[in-house]
Each structure stands twice: as structure tokens, then as C-alpha cells.
Specification:
The complex is a heterodimer of chains A (498) and B (141). With 498 residues, chain A is an all-alpha fold. Chain A contains 21 helices and two strands. In chain A, 60% of the residues are buried. Chain B is mainly α. The chains are: A mainly alpha (498), B mainly alpha (141).
């Protein structure tokens, strides 16, 4: 029994959330059962991801290959839990468990009736399953299917609040994200035409043999992928849907959308760029320069846009645009340190941004106020919430002892190794700008006179969830050991290929 | 609609359409079509029923709770069929490796678990398409 479970774990981490998602609608009226099941399956996911990560660490980076239906690679579909897969599975489980805990008993005010809350959880688990699939898949068409599942569940999550603004934001997102999916599908189609394989490894081998004969097809495929995933992961000029979508969603949804959903698309892009095209093609087509440039523009522009917002959740949403810039910048650094930094920053941002969004959601729920200037003195009324918000901000700015610092440090090291000076300056300026848009919130909260109102910290499950995320940020910052090792192994594996 | 001929003809034809849908679902692996196309045909027979006999009668035939259950368990059935392989010590979704007799090629049983998996997908597609139809009809009124 246990042997069967451990042997099939790579597929269980994907299908367990999906299974529960399909069962949930039939229990729509029994809220406690629904919430219990969701938290249970998230906890199982964390255990499974931890076990897989320990195996991958012990095997010195040899990936676990799982063949669906027992069919070998070029014909069948493969799941591959390598260093990258285990790393991202841990990130997914580590963020989605606290978020599910935060949502417990807390959604009816924002979402509405029990049926709507159940529907929210169904979409939440579907998104979770799709992200886990993205972490382990090794098949190009699976990438497309999972991207579609994630996109549609994100649209549902954005429109979960019964509000006209939410519907508008979801519709904008749906249109733009469908455009992105179409481009991704087009890119996969071009790859399939030229290589005749959907399996990433085989596709990559074939591409390495023939790309010099068909450079135009590779160009088209790369640009389709970049723009398609760029729309989905809100790369700066393509970010238009993000601020509305992430600020109008209910706060657990904002946390999971900003923290994880975007990262799923980035992991897909990373896999396609480095596992299919490979670093030789990236350098031959100068894609890495485009990525670094796009990342720098996104950091500066996103930070400046965030500075101009007074609404708390909108400021955090624009901050996501800036932080995605760091990850794109890291994607373009074709060396181990840079890619390690990118992966670590991705995990760090996932944890920090979901902590920030959840804390912001708790504050907005307690006070009913949306804008930053109205939250004077909230630090003394809601000490735990504001403390977690502060920890998240410090991590996002990149103060030592918090997770963001290590990511940024490795990004800077990677840039220096690649001989880029301007991106280093941009990373530092971005951190200063980040402090400029986050620290005023903390100053307002702690050092301004307290308004005479009855604001209180949220309930116990919400407190636990916030504290869990804050602890995760500090642990990642102080003892990054195994995470950093998984990230650097994944980065090294990307550069070994070809 | 109060057309006598239409109602009589529908009463005769609809059961056959529904059965044909299930035929297409189950023979997905040996003939054109499959669970999606067959599921649409099954759903279509219910949609035609509700347009001809009136939406209330259609709703009475397929209440929302039934649709929710079929929708959920159609997909869950897919997963359960996938688990058959795991219980036999083979990977998820294994077919022949799970010890299923594949019979004579070209016949219904030659797909092993595929036609059963298709049944789950077909039921899911049928109930989804009917739910979509009911939702759109409600929005209109």
C-alpha cells in the first residue's frame, strides 16, 4: 500500500487536488466538510512535495521519471520530478496550505452564499492541480492543457466576488489570457511541426540538430512563447489585466493569483526556454538580452506605477508587476548563479506576496477601508497582521535575514558573472523604489495617531496562516540550505543540457 | 411549443438519439467520434426535449442536483478508472499493463478501459452542455 503510494506520488500530487475538486460540488451545503477536505488535501500535498524533494535531494539530482499508462517516452506522456519540479511543488504546497487556512470560515462575506464559496474552492483546487502539473510535466501539449486549466480557474477566482468591478476585471483577463494561450498553442504547434515530438527532451534533441536549417521557425516559436507567457505572467507592457484582476479578487484569491498562478506560467516558460530550446539557442538568438531588457523595464515601470497608487491592494498588485521583472531578468542570465537567484526569488516572492495580500485582506476586512492613508495607527490595533505585513515588506525590499535578500543577492552575483553592470544598478534602484512604496504603509500604520475605532486581528485560523507565512519567509532567509541547493541544482541542470 | 406532430416525432426519435450518443461514446476507440462527440449528442437529446416540451419539463427531468452529481462523478469516474492500474501495481491509467484482456482488435472490448473512461467523460460533457443550456435560458428570461 505505502509502496504503491510512494511509487505513484508524482501523479498523486497532481490528481489529488483535482479529485477533491470534482467531489466538492456535491457537498455544497456542508461548509465545514468542504473546508476540511480542502485543508486536508493541501496538507497531503505538502507532505507529498516534501517527500519527493527529500528523494530528489538524496538522489543527487537524478530525476524521478513517471510514465503515464506505462508507455515509454516518445509515445507516452512523462512526468518528471527533478530538482525544479520538487522545488516548485514545495513552493505550491507551502503557499496554498496557509492560503486555504486563511480562507477557512472567512469567505462568505467577500464571496457570498455557500454555493459560491464551494465554487471558489473548486476553482482553487483546480488551479492547484494545474500548477502541480506544470511543476512535473515533461510534455509540451500537457503544458498547454495545464495553462488553460489554470487560466480558466484564475478567471473564475477573479470573478468570485459578487461585484460589477470583479466581473469587468475577469472579462478583461479572460480576453487577454485567451490571446496568450493562443500564442502559446501556436508556439507549441511550430515546435511540433519542426521537431515531430511533444516530449520536451526529444523535442530539444531534434531541435538541436535542425535549428540551423529552420531559423525562422525557431524565431516564430520563441517569440510566440515569450509574448504568450508574457501576457499570462504580466510582463510589463502586457500587464494591463493584472492590477484590476488581482485587486478586485477576494484576498485569498489575490494571494494565490499573485503568489502562485503567475509563477506557474513562469515555470512553464523556463522549462520551454531551457529544456526545449536550450541555452545554446537562447544565446544564438539573443533571447537572453531581450529577457534582461524586459525585466529591467518591468522593474522600474512597475515600481513607479506602484508608487502612484493609494489603494492598498492595487499597490500590491502593481508591485507584482515590478517583482515579475526580477524573475524575467533572472531568466535571461545564462549562468548558474543567475538562474539560482531567479528560482529562489520566485519562491521568495510567492511567499512574501501572499503574506502581504493576506495581511492586506485582513486589514481591509476589519476596517472596511481600501486606501493606505486611512489606515493610520492600525499597527497598534492589529499587531499580528501588521507584523506579518512588515515581514513581507522587508522580504520584498530585500533586507538581509529575509528571503528576498538571498534571491536578489544571487541575481546580482549572476549579473556580475555575466558582466552586466546596468541590471545590477536596476536591481538596487528597484529595491529602493520598493522600499519607497512599501515603507510608508508601515510608517502610517505604526507611527501615526490611532483612530478611535474597534479594529481587531482576524480569527485564529487566519492568524495561524499569517504566522506560518511569516515564519516561512524568515526560514527561507536565515536557513535557505535545502531550498538553495534544489534551486542551484535545477539551475545547473538547465545549463548542462546540450 | 404546442405542435402535436413535433411532440409525437420527438417522443419516438429522442430515445434513439440518446442511445446513439452512448453508442458513439462507447465506440470512441474503434470508430469516428468519441466521448466528447457522443456526450454532445446525449446532451443534445435532453436539450431538444426541453426546447420541444418546455424548459420546465426539461428541468423536472434533469434537476440541478442530478446535473451536479453526474458532472462531478463523470470526471471522478475517469480518475477511478485510472486508479485501476495503480491497484494492480502498474502506473496510473495503465490498460494492458493492468492485466485487462484486450480481446479481438476492432471490437468494443479491444479498448480495454478506454470505453469505460470515455463513458465518464461523455456523461460529464453531456451534463455540462445541458447545464450551459439551462443557464443561458435562465439568463434570457
Amino acid at each position: 500500500m505505502t509502496a504503491a503510494i510512494t511509487a505513484n506520488l508524482p501523479v498523486f500530487v497532481v490528481i489529488a487536488p483535482l479529485f477533491v475538486a470534482f467531489v466538492l460540488p456535491t457537498f455544497a451545503r456542508r461548509m465545514r466538510l468542504v473546508e476540511g477536505l480542502v485543508i486536508f488535501v493541501e496538507a497531503l500535498g505538502l507532505v507529498g512535495a516534501g517527500y519527493l524533494a527529500s528523494i530528489v535531494l538524496a538522489q543527487k539530482g537524478i530525476p524521478i521519471i513517471y510514465r503515464l499508462g506505462g508507455w515509454p517516452a516518445p509515445w507516452g506522456i512523462e512526468l518528471e520530478v527533478g530538482s525544479l519540479g520538487a522545488f516548485f511543488l514545495l513552493v505550491i504546497a507551502g503557499v496554498s496550505l496557509p492560503v486555504a487556512l486563511f480562507a477557512r470560515g472567512n469567505l462568505t462575506k467577500e464571496v457570498g452564499s455557500k454555493e459560491r464559496v464551494t465554487r471558489f474552492y473548486v476553482l482553487y483546487l483546480l488551479l492547484n492541480g494545474a500548477l502541480a502539473g506544470m511543476a512535473v510535466t515533461n510534455d509540451l501539449f500537457n503544458v498547454f492543457v495545464l495553462v488553460e486549466v489554470a487560466t480558466l480557474s484564475c478567471c473564475g477566482l477573479v470573478s468570485a466576488r459578487n461585484h460589477p468591478r470583479a466581473a469587468e476585471a475577469a472579462f478583461t483577463y479572460l480576453i487577454l489570457a485567451t490571446l496568450g494561450s493562443t500564442l502559446v498553442l501556436g508556439g507549441i504547434g511550430f515546435l511540433y511541426i519542426t521537431t515531430g515530438h511533444l516530449n520536451m527532451g526529444f523535442s530539444s534533441q531534434e531541435l538541436g540538430r535542425i535549428w540551423q536549417d529552420n531559423p525562422h521557425v525557431v524565431w516564430v516559436a520563441i517569440s510566440f512563447m515569450l509574448v504568450g507567457f508574457g501576457v499570462k505572467s504580466a510582463l510589463f507592457p502586457l500587464h494591463l489585466w493584472l492590477p484590476d484582476a488581482h485587486s478586485t479578487a477576494p484576498s485569498p484569491a489575490s494571494a494565490i493569483l499573485s503568489g502562485l498562478a503567475i509563477k506557474g506560467y513562469l515555470i512553464c516558460l523556463l522549462k520551454i526556454l531551457y529544456n526545449v530550446f536550450g541555452h545554446t539557442l537562447i544565446q544564438a538568438f539573443a533571447v537572453h538580452r531581450i529577457l534582461v531588457l524586459a525585466g529591467m523595464v518591468a522593474i522600474i515601470a512597475g515600481s513607479i506605477l506602484a508608487l502612484t497608487q493609494d489603494e492598498l491592494k492595487r499597490r500590491l498588485a502593481f508591485s507584482t508587476v515590478a517583482q515579475v521583472g526580477y524573475i524575467y531578468l533572472g531568466l535571461g542570465l545564462v549562468n548558474t548563479k543567475g538562474l539560482t537567484g531567479m528560482l529562489f526569488y520566485l519562491a521568495s516572492h510567492a511567499v512574501s506576496k501572499s503574506a502581504l495580500f493576506l495581511a492586506a485582506g485582513a486589514m481591509i476586512a476589519a476596517t472596511g477601508k481600501q486606501s493606505i492613508s486611512e489606515l493610520a495607527g492600525i499597527g497598534r490595533k492589529m499587531p499580528i497582521t501588521m507584523a506579518v505585513f512588515t515581514v513581507g515588506s522587508l522580504s520584498l525590499v530585500g533586507i538581509p535575514l529575509f528571503s528576498g535578500f538571498i534571491g536578489k543577492w544571487y541575481l546580482i552575483l549572476g549579473n556580475l558573472e555575466a558582466g552586466n553592470i546596468i541590471p545590477v544598478a536596476v536591481i538596487i534602484i528597484g529595491s529602493v523604489l520598493c522600499a519607497a512604496y512599501l515603507f510608508p504603509i508601515i510608517r502610517t500604520a505604526y507611527f501615526e495617531p490611532v483612530a478611535d475605532e474597534d479594529w481587531q486581528d482576524p480569527g485564529l485560523p487566519q492568524k495561524i496562516s499569517l504566522i506560518l507565512l511569516a515564519v516561512a519567509i524568515v526560514i527561507l532567509g536565515v536557513l535557505p540550505g535545502p531550498f538553495l541547493e534544489l534551486a542551484s541544482r535545477a539551475a545547473a541542470e538547465f545549463l548542462v543540457l546540450q | 411549443m404546442r405542435d402535436f406532430i413535433l411532440k409525437r416525432v420527438a417522443a419516438i426519435i429522442l430515445p434513439f438519439i440518446c442511445t446513439y450518443g452512448f453508442y458513439v461514446i462507447l465506440h470512441g476507440h474503434v470508430s469516428p467520434g468519441g466521448s466528447f462527440a457522443g456526450g454532445i449528442i446525449v446532451g443534445l437529446s435532453f436539450i431538444a426535449f426541453s426546447t420541444i416540451y418546455g424548459i420546465e419539463k426539461g428541468r423536472a427531468r434533469l434537476p440541478e442536483t442530478v446535473l451536479t452529481w453526474t458532472e462531478s462523478f463523470g470526471t471522478l469516474w475517469y480518475g477511478i478508472m485510472g486508479m485501476v492500474g495503480i491497484t494492480k501495481g502498474a502506473p496510473f491509467l495503465a490498460n494492458k499493463l493492468a492485466g485487462i484482456d484486450l480481446g479481438v482488435p476492432g471490437t468494443l472490448s479491444s479498448g480495454g478501459l478506454i470505453s469505460l473512461i470515455g463513458l465518464g467523460v461523455g456523461i460529464r460533457v453531456a451534463s455540462t452542455i445541458v447545464t450551459l443550456f439551462f443557464t443561458m435560458m435562465e439568463e434570457k428570461s
